[in-house]
Design brief:
Elements (H helix, E strand, L loop, with lengths): L1 H15 L3 H5 L12 H15 L3 H12 L5 H4 L9 H23 L1 E3 L5 E3 L5 H6 L20 H12 L7 H13 L1 H24 L19 H8 L5
Antiparallel strand pairs: 1-2
Helix pairs in contact: 1-3, 1-6, 1-8, 3-10, 9-10
Length: about 240
């Protein structure tokens, strides 16, 4: 669904640094447009607005994005050539926080046969923790003993889940470029797909030129339970 698409695209943006890796590898010319993390996120926001059909998912995303929930407006860099790898990870981490926030919201709601949403009793701390992703069981390294998230470990988990293979950065692109030069058929197909992606990105980007400035709001902290202590005692941290 929409959440999986957002995870794949946002992690891919971090891996390719908005197209800069493609330029550095020689797959794109130096005069190609390079996006900043903020530009790329705005483009994805426009894609969700105009092309995602699931109304509830679309509206939830657009509301969170336009209201700068989960510190969005403070974590997206406007730098292009000088954006750091940490800058590029931020949108992927924001998508992950947004997804978890949606999960907690659904825990507190139910929908009857008429499509009417009714608020339920607030879930307990333990219920909320069990529905956080990744869980302590699936990614012990993602949780600090204090109960806070380790965002570096979370991003690595996102990579393993949504970005198959190695880092897919410079070395992989250089190898691919060599294969492309030797194989006109396979390379032509990939070049066609890449060109299509660039055109689609440009069209969507044109649609959002009049987008309004977002405003910030305080983030909602993620709740955790004491089950972390049990997980730590039963499983050693990976070095």
């Amino acid at each position: 669904g929409m959440h999986k698409m957002l995870h794949v695209v946002s992690v891919g943006l971090a891996e390719h640094r908005g197209g800069l890796n493609l330029v550095e590898s020689g797959m794109l010319e130096n005069n190609r447009t390079i996006y900043s993390p903020s530009d790329a996120a705005d483009t994805i926001n426009a894609y969700v607005k105009y092309f995602v059909r699931q109304k509830q998912c679309r509206d939830d995303f657009l509301y969170s994005y336009s209201n700068c929930e989960y510190r969005l407006c403070h974590r997206l860099s406007k730098l292009k050539d000088n954006a750091s790898p940490a800058d590029w990870k931020q949108f992927a981490l924001w998508v992950w926080e947004f997804h978890n926030g949606n999960t907690l919201q659904l825990l507190n709601q139910t929908t009857n046969s008429f499509g009417e949403v009714r608020e339920l009793q607030t879930p307990t701390k333990e219920e909320q923790t069990k529905n956080m992703w990744p869980s302590v069981k699936n990614c012990l390294e993602c949780w600090e003993h204090s109960g806070e998230w380790n965002e570096d470990a979370v991003f690595e988990y996102l990579e393993k889940t949504y970005w198959d293979g190695p880092n897919a950065n410079y070395d992989k692109l250089m190898t691919f470029k060599e294969l492309y030069a030797e194989d006109g058929t396979g390379g032509g197909f990939v070049l066609f797909m890449l060109s299509g992606a660039i055109i689609l990105t440009y069209v969507v980007w044109r649609l959002i030129q009049g987008a309004s400035v977002h405003h910030t709001q305080d983030p909602v902290p993620l709740l955790i339970s004491t089950e972390l202590d049990g997980a730590v005692s039963g499983k050693k941290r990976r070095v």
